[in-house]
Amino acid sequence: MPYVRIVVAAVAALLVAGTASSQWLRYPTRGTPRLPDGTPNLSAPAPRTADGHPDLTGVWEVLGDLVMPTDGRVRSKYVYNIGVDQAGGAAPLQPWARALWDTRQKALGVGAPTERCLPHGIPDAMLTRTLPFKIVQGPGLTIILFEEFNNWRQVFTDGRPLPDDPQPAWLGYSVGRWDGDTFVIDSAGFNDKSWLDAGGTPHTESLRTTERFRRRDFGHMDVEFAFDDPKAFTRAWSTTVTFALLPDTDLLESH
Q1: For 2-36, what is the HEC assignment?
Q2: Which of 68, 77, 120, 231 could connect to 204 by a Cys-Cys bridge, CB 3.0–4.6 Å?
Q3: For the chain, what is the radius of gyration of the CA atoms?
Q4: Does the residue 195 lie in any domain?
């Protein structure tokens, strides 16, 4: 599917102006600030909703900061190891979890749930370039749509608490709130089958995550992912990942 996006975008660029409006993937997004030449101004201030909070709505993709030696493609350094910034270059894992992580790393991620078309976990679902996600922010509910596998998350902002005894789920259960200009998502109720990244960082059903979304300007958003799982980690820990807005486009159907 990533190749389809590239091909369609290339074809759209060659079409005459009279037919450009029919190209869904290159449709100009309403309200996008623009430079004099018409290109999106990604350094403009972040938009805000009627209640004054930053509006996170948009199609987002993890920032690429690592050139892969195997194929020369640009990836995020976090896609295969969300704990790369921690001491020792990995998440602070309990001995059993470290042994499992070592095995998965040596296998280069072979055996991931996604090989069987099972869902990504959090934040794994947000870390693959060319497979973006879309945030739709509304009163009482924010929805996160993932292009890969057509998955989605519901983040309730209507004041409800997390469920006390939920049925374990791939993406858990999430509630959100605002802390100044930062959108905070607390999640729990995960099953233990998902990986935190494509390299196989494990967790248990005791996992709780806190995500802090900060849209620093129109085109850039920092998300701090904090993990607490005493059965898998020796301590609570966090890392911050940067995402870039993909303007004037939308998600594709992916299987």
Answers
A1: HHHHHHHHHHHHHCCHHHHCCCHHHCCCCCCCECC
A2: 231
A3: 19
A4: yes
Token readout for 89 is 């270059």
Per-residue model confidence as pLDDT tens digits over 150-189: 999 999 999 999 999 999 999 999 999 999 999 999 999 9
Which of 139, 140, 181 has the alpha carbon at shortest distance from 160?
Answer: 140
Handedness of CA 78, 83, 86, 89 (dihedral sign): negative
Question: How high is the pLDDT of residue 24?
Answer: 63
Helices and strands, counts by H and E, the chain? 3, 11
Q: pTM here? A: 0.89
Domain-located, residue 50: no
Contact predicate 183/64, CB 8 Å: no
**Average pLDDT of the residues in 219-245:** 98
Contact predicate 78/241, CB 8 Å: yes
Give how many domains the chain has, as a whole number: 1
Range of the domain at 216: 58-245
Q: Is pLDDT of 13 > 80?
A: no
The residue among 119, 169, 170 whose CA lies nearest residue 148 is 119
Cα 112 to chain centroid distance, Å, stands at: 18
